[in-house]
Please model this.
Amino acid sequence: MGFPSSRPRRLRTTPALRRLVAETDLRPRHLVLPMFVREGASEPVPIASMPGVVQHTRDTLRKAAAEAVSAGVGGLMLFGVPAHKDASGSGAVDPDGVLNVALRDVRAEVGDATVVMADTCLDEFTDHGHCGVLDADGRVDNDATLAVYADMAVAQVEAGAHMLGPSGMMDGQVGVIREALDAAGHTDAAIFAYTAKYTSAFYGPFRDAVESSLQGDRKTYQQDGANVRESLRELALDLAEGADLVMVKPAMAYLDVLRAVAEVSDVPVGAYQVSGEYAMIEAAAANGWLERDRAILETLTGIRRAGADVVLTYWATEVAHRLAAE
Ligand code: PBG
Model:
C-alpha cells in the first residue's frame, strides 16, 4: 500500500469542514478588557509602549466600557492611575480615590451587562511602587499589606465591582479578602485570584501605563519563571481560601503552567495576555513583520487551547467585534 488510508488533510478541505471539527472556540464572552483611568485627565493619554491603548478620562472610560459591552466582551478589569501616591497607597481605600470613582462610573454605565472587575493591589497607589506596604527595613510586609487589601476590597465592591482581582501575590490575600467581604455582607462579590503570577519582563509597558514608580523588582513576591510545581501549591492555597476563578499570568511564556493549572482546577481558569505580549505584536506589525490580525487571533486561540476559560487581553473589544462579524 503506497497510499495512506488515514488522511488528516481530508478534514481540512473546506472552511465548513474546518469549522465543523474545530476543537477550540473563541467568543467575545471569553475576553476581559483591562482598562486604565487617570485621575484628573481631561483628554485620553496615549501609552507610548502600548499603541492603541490609553489612560482614560472618566468620560472616555464610560464610553469605552459601553462599547465593550456592545461588542459582547465578558468582563472589564479596571486599573487606576492616581494623581498622588504615598507610602501606604491610601488612594486605594479612599472611596473618592480614582479607581473607586471609576468603578462607580462604569457600574452606573453598564449595570450587570458585563462583569465589572477591579485590580485589588497597591502598586499603582504607592510612591515606592511596590504591591504592598513596606516594613522598617524597606521590605514588603505581607501581613500589614493584607489588612490594607481587606479595606481596599470592601471599598471596591461598595463602589460597584462585581469581582476583585488581587494581583499582589501576598500570601493569604484571597482568604483575607473573602473574610472581609463576607463580614461586610458582600457574599456575592467574587474573587478572581491571580494564582500563578510570575516576575516578568513582559509587564514593562504596563508600568508605563500606570506610571509606576517602582525601583528594583518584585522577585520576593512574584513567582520565579523556573517553577511550575509552585503554581500548583499556589492553586491549592487559593482554592482553599475561597477563590472563585484562578489566573495564570503572563500567558504566552507560561502556557505549560496554564495547562497544568487547568487540568486540576475545579474553578474556571483565566490567563492574562499582558502588556508586553500586546506590545510585541503591535511593534512587529507596525514594522510589517507579521500579519497583525491573524497573529492576534492565533495567540488568543492558543491561550484558550492551553486551558483558559477566560482571557484578559487589551485587544478584547476589537477582537469581540471581529468575532461577532464572523
Ligand atoms: C499589579 C499588576 C501588574 C500587572 C497587572 N497587575 C504589574 C506588575 O505586577 O508589575 C501587569 C499587567 C500587564 O503587564 O499587562 N497591580
In short: The two ends are 42 Å apart (CA to CA).
